Amino acid sequence: MKHTSYIELNKGALKKNIRFLKKRLGSNGKFVSVVKGNAYGHGTADFVPLAEECGIDYFAVSDADEAEEALKVKSDNSELMLMNYIESEDLAWAIENDVTFYVFDFDRLRAAAYSAKKLQIRARIHIELETGMNRTGFLYKDCEAVVDFIKSNKDLFQIEGICTHYAGAESVANYVRVMEQRELYKKMLEIFTHNGIVPKYRHTASSASTLTYEDTIMDMARIGIAQYGYWPSKETRMFNLLSPENQFKRDPLNRVISWKSKVMQVRDIEAGKFLGYGTSYMTGGTERIAIVPIGYSRGFSRSLSNLGTVLIRGRKLPVVGMVNMNMVMINASECSIVKPGDEVVIVGKQGKRSVSFASFADLSKYVNYEMLTRLPSSIPRFVV
Ligand SMILES: *Cc1c(COP(=O)(O)O)cnc(C)c1O
Hints:
By secondary structure, the protein is α/β, with parallel strands linked by helices. It has 12 helices and 18 strands. The longest helix is centred in the middle third of the chain and has 20 residues, at 175-194. It starts with a strand and ends with a strand. The chain binds pyridoxal-5'-phosphate (PLP). The site of pyridoxal-5'-phosphate has 13 residues, from helix 9 and strand 9.
């Protein structure tokens, strides 16, 4: 293998996560697997077929380039939803490839109608409603006009969804705002259904709202982070682990991803020496230092300098000195038998210990979402 590190995707873990989440969604809640950001760093090309094997048949991406990647690897039986931006001139491409997409303003609505008419194929759209996030989507005052436009272009549309997105369902600090959004969504939805525009799916929930506010699930939930085995936040985790059903018996989410490398060189450095670039770390005594060929160009953030940990021979060992572009130094003094070629677990389990992206996120300024998506697509992925 020419790569200095590799990623493993654990099928068993994914299966368990999907089973747990599907139970939460109930029999009417369609599971949409969100695979934007290169499947949260897991790798779209490997993750999409794996998720299909675990029973997923609806995927969501952010933009057209991501849709293109997903189309290459998904089966014909799976649906695809584009939740964010696509150029108007690419709408014809989306319609022809049966990609369902968000319509968030009148320009996009008209452009979709134009492309559908030209192709003589209905555009399958999700009408996005702005309910309080103050980001994208139609406003309350727009709804009547949207209804009128769709009614007068009935043959050009198939209303796949009417949807919104909550501004932070992962924190109780946003409770009031989320509840207000849910109420406004219902009010706006009424305007559509009252006029005979009934979507196939009413959808508002992401991982956090699915796991916190059951009634946001409706007909569908767009599940990202949780399917990969990560909690949207500590609050969501506590809320679920403390629930009467769980009572801290076990964590129902299992991490799908592991990331591994090897020790490249080992050397003993005497006391009072600075390690690597600069003077951020000085040895306290003679220290055994293991060099690992990963760095910030490989997704191991420089903010983990003198903070991160890796696993070698079942021990949790600290990063010492600055993370370099392609190298990191590990203090392996407490593990005298460490030698070149030893497996290094950057994220995942080894023996009884584990390191996760969540722990990275605690140590650096990144949330687990960002840590995951910063994993370069060039690192090879293997399903285990
Ligand atoms: C990313 C995203 C989701 C999934 O969010 P998670 O917190 O990862 O579950 C759902 N809906 C929209 C619109 C998104 O952009």
